[in-house]
Design a protein that fits this description.
mainly alpha; globular
Length: 158
């Protein structure tokens, strides 16, 4: 059974994974050139997404808030990954300690959702419907006019 303790243990592992990526970037200059090592940057972005998700699942919200800005600089985020960052920011907003923090995280979530759309997500009509009505991560956004306007204009990419 998956519980908070499992996520707390997993967060220790994903922390180490992010540290290893950071060490590789520091110690091996070739990895700093995103054009020459795109595969590595994709791995870094995936590890960072996984870490942020794990921190939220472990209810380590303050640690997640400190880590989330690292994704702003992530190279190789696909449309679906940008969508996930939007969802993760929406989840953080659901656990905000004050209205100012909540509003900032909602704004960041919507910004990431727009980035996802600009990079090709949602790709299918099913994805569009999922965003508009099904994805529970976005519940905090559904009553917001800016989200409603954005979601209304979504079209599947061809």
């Amino acid at each position: 059974m998956i519980n908070e303790k499992n996520f707390t243990e997993a967060a220790k592992t994903t922390t180490r994974l992010v540290e290893l990526h950071d060490e590789m970037l520091r110690d091996f200059p070739v990895f700093r050139d995103a054009r020459r090592s795109q595969w590595f940057h994709a791995q870094c972005a995936g590890a960072s997404l996984n870490h942020l998700n794990t921190l939220i699942n472990a209810k380590q919200f303050e640690e997640a808030r400190k880590f989330a800005p690292r994704l702003e600089d992530a190279v190789s985020l696909t449309g679906s990954n940008a969508y996930l960052v939007g969802c993760l920011n929406a989840r953080l907003a659901s656990h905000a300690s004050d209205d100012s923090q909540k509003e900032m995280e909602i704004a960041r979530a919507i910004e990431w959702l727009r980035k996802a759309e600009s990079t090709g997500y949602p790709a299918t009509p099913k994805d569009v419907e999922h965003i508009r009505t099904v994805d529970n991560d976005l519940n905090i956004l559904r009553s917001r006019p800016e989200f409603q306007e954005w979601a209304k204009g979504l079209k599947a990419k061809k």
